[in-house]
Amino acid sequence: MDWLSAVNLDGLAAVDFHWLGLVLELVLMPLIAFVVGLGLVLMLRKIAARLQRRVGPPLLQPLWDIIKLHAKETQTSHGLIHEIGIVMAIGGYVAAVTLLPVPGMNGLAEQGGLIALLYMTMIPSLGLALGVGQCANPNGSIGISRALTAMLAYDVPMVIVIFGVAFHFGSLNLVHLIAAQQAGGIAGWGIVQMPLLALAGLFALQGMLGKQPFEIYVAPAEIATGPMVEMGGKFLGGLFVMQCFQLYTGGALYVTLFLGGGEHWLTFLFKVFVVTAIPMTIAMVFPRYRTEDMVRLFWKWPTMIGLLGIAFVMN
What we know:
The protein is mostly helical. The chain has helices at 2-51, 61-71, 80-97, 114-135, 138-169, 174-183, 190-193, 195-208, 220-223, 234-258, 265-283, 291-298, 301-314. It has one domain (2-314).
């Protein structure tokens, strides 16, 4: 009886340690994503400044912007739905981050998968639709309708890419995808084995990040920044936080699918910054597309490239 009690106690201690480790990972992963996202926002502004022959902001400017906006007193609230919309916008990406395995931490990646991650990335746009719709501002309504149309446009090639990657590796589990790529070295990376799908995924990433030439839903000179027109103070600060998570999620997802994840943090962060710099650089040298042109482009070239990639994967 004493031996059995000792075994049970050891088992309970192991279970408690497992849950404690999981909770710690679920806290650390969003915090790391936010800090890295601040760095990505700074890189975005630095790239824009260099291309426009400016100096750019100082190192901690993205963080000061968020602190300043949350310190401001919000004069107007449009009700509970307006508040919930911002929570959904940030919460969707926070949940997505916990599904993306990083060096040393898997979070909920073993329990979730690519399908769950794709759904999580849709929640922020739906949250913005709820929050902005509560404001009844015509510019905001036009902007959010364009944002939802953009989501529908880039989700088609993104779903094709995810299907092709899952078919090639025989799994929707991101931990297994990373392990399979790392086992084969650089030759085992998705970008080497599935170059067409990687190219289609890069197209979809540009739309997912909401940068030029696919940011027609913002269009400051036309609809006064669209969804952000009624956002001030803590609400605008919340959108800044969402942008940090958005940039990190997009870059980390592409690295996971096509660049073998990260053996350690240095290589992982290097890959994320390089991958994210590509759409950021493109954003600063191309004018924005109209909504119908954007949909036509996404449903034509990246979709065709993705389908060709699936054809090669299946052969």
